[in-house]
Amino acid sequence: MMKGGMARRIYFYFVVVIALTSVTVGVTGYWRSSKELDNQYQALLAQIVDNAVHQTDLYLKGYERATLSILTSALVKDALSSKPDKSKVSEFYVVENMIKQQLFQTVLINNPEITMVYLAGYNGFRAMDFNVQVTPFNYKAFDEYIEQLKEDTRDDGGLTIQDSGFLDGHLTLARKVSDRQTSRMFKGVMGFEMRINELKTLWKGIRLGETGYFFIVNDRGKIIYHPDNKRIGKQLAGRQFEAVKSNTNRVFELPDEPDRIFFSRHSDYSGWNLVASMSLSEQREPVAALRQTTIYVGLGTLLIALYLAYRFGRSIVKPVRRLEYGMRQTEIGQWTKVPLTGSHDEMDRLISSYNTMVERLEELVDRVYETELRNQEHLLKRQLAEFQSLQLQINPHFLYNTLEIIICYAVIQKSSEIKEIVRSLSYMLRYSVRTDLEEITVANELKHMMHFIAIMKFRIGREFEVDVRIPPELLLKSMVRLTLQPLVENVFKHAFPDGIEEHHLIIVNAWCDQSDFYLTVEDNGSGMSAHRLAALRKSLRRSADQSTDGSIGLGNVHNRIQMVFGARYGLRVESKEGDGTRITMHMPAAGTKKVMSG
């Protein structure tokens, strides 16, 4: 804690709170805002690339539809299905011209971006047409290209897109042709040669800031499109191409370009990877502006808050110092009143309350000792009355049952049992109603318990022995009178609800440690559920005066032990349903701590 006066500490704490709040709000706001901006830029890249993939695939699929008129033409199927025959060269020539006029010209007129359309049958038939004049035309190289195209085109008859066409600067869109619509017996190959510049009109409108750009690479790493025309047709570096392929659908960085982020999406239709790139410095420019604004605003707010904290601290400290002076005078016995500040606020009300307190203290101090002595005397008398009242509690129900047994035996026969019952009952009554002893020896408590057992064997109709395992040297230990028998009686009432069987057992044991004496009553009866055990422990903590049936119950025993020996002593109960109960009396081992006598 900072040393010095209250004003300095208040100002210091205000500074800490204000600075911590400003820094926390500023840093959190900056962090959240910058994170949101990063997410927006990444979402923007993903959206741009997704749109480019969608538009490109739609554009290419339009040419797939353009091939249907050729695929379904009877002229084409007849030309491709006829057998090679040198004598039919003139017929091939006629069919070729008809295909050009009826099919190829329509395709070329409707799609001016197509430079060349051709059809090559496996039977040697060839037909081709051009939108522009191509001279000289290398027929040998074209035949070799067709042979390679037979291998490269898809076997399911779908459109195949090749980024390097027969003509320079063109794409090849080709597919195999069958003799029927649904047949897989292919008879030839047809294709378009389309200028790749036509596709650039789809991509050149993509804007990614001042330094951002968009490019496309094929599945072999060749650059198909790039804003820099010099890079079109070049091969993407090996590590960079691997990064593009392995980071599809997420933001990543390319090797050798650490100041840029990229987003790649693979087109299943064309087989290309479309990639968008943006400069990190350009992306972070709004974040830097946000950071600068946050710092300036935070510093300005902090300075204003510090000034207000200083003024506020002084307004509190000044009247507090007045109170401090008045309290010091009161401390040395001079009952001094503090003058009001005149502001009529909480401080004035506090000072007024202090002055009233001084007046009352002056009157009450003289009465404190007298009142304290009276309270102590009343408390002692009340504890003595409670102790004697608790000692005199006897279970009427038990006495009534015992007397009924005596009457029954007296009516039926004269025997020594009546004498034994009456003698045991007489001893128990005399032992119970004595009020001159707050403590008794363990031996006396055991004797009282054995008289109770003598009566109980007649009530249960059979012999029942209590296993007493107390070492002889502990028999003269002191304990509170009339505490052992209620615990044994509690076992008969609750531990054996279905009657006493041969296997039932009650064990009484005792031991000492350095400062405490423990006596336990343990049975192998029905035990208690966890809920019932918790309720019993809670009742003992509240020091219940008596059990629910009016007997000298566990709460009574616990309360009397605490009244004689102190609050740290008493009963502790351990039980498990179906596994018996163990009740431990905790008392001091040496000497008598007579709490009641002061």
From TrEMBL:
Positions of the Histidine kinase domain: 375-591
Topology in membrane: Multi-pass membrane protein
Compartments, as annotated in UniProt: Cell membrane
Pfam families associated with the record: dCache_1, HAMP, HATPase_c, His_kinase
Domain of life where this protein originates: Bacteria
Residue spans crossing the bilayer: 12-31
Keywords carried by this UniProt record: ATP-binding, Cell membrane, Kinase, Membrane, Nucleotide-binding, Phosphoprotein, Transferase, Transmembrane, Transmembrane helix, Two-component regulatory system
Protein name per UniProt: Histidine kinase
Lineage, highest ranks first: Bacteria, Bacillati, Bacillota, Bacilli, Bacillales
